[in-house]
Amino acid sequence: MSKVFAIASFGGHWKQLRLLSECFDKHEVIYITNESFKSCKCEKITDVNRNSYFLILKCIFQFLILFVKHRPSHVVSTGALPGLIGVFIGRIFFCKTLWIDSMANAEELSFSGKVAKKIAHICLSQWEDVATTEGVGFQGRVL
Length: 143
Hints:
- By secondary structure, the chain is an alpha/beta fold.
- The protein has a single domain, classed as Rossmann fold (3-Layer(aba) Sandwich).
- It is built from five helices and six strands.
- It has a six-stranded parallel beta sheet with strand order 3-2-1-4-5-6.
- Helix 4 links the parallel strand 5 and strand 6.
């Protein structure tokens, strides 16, 4: 059985990730977000943005601990900077990685999505025209 890290910031990113939960039925899933939930196996990390340099370092350290502790084989993220950090560290740990850019980015990939496009094994947009313009995949929408 594969072990999957499913990573998203709380809010819309989290809702979209949870809508994908059926895709993980045959896998052991560990959800990682900046909130705690008792309804699923969840690890909490620091919420960060690209202007919070110290918190980014803290988040990287937290992810390193989680990767050593759980040893996932796959990383899936629906977005925001913590998910990007998880995808990046996943590559270092030889995980298969998937980035699904948020439904909210209807005109272009998010900043994190543009970086993830260069890092993740697979990068998807939920908008077909954005996928074509940005050179990423399109497999439909979560919502």
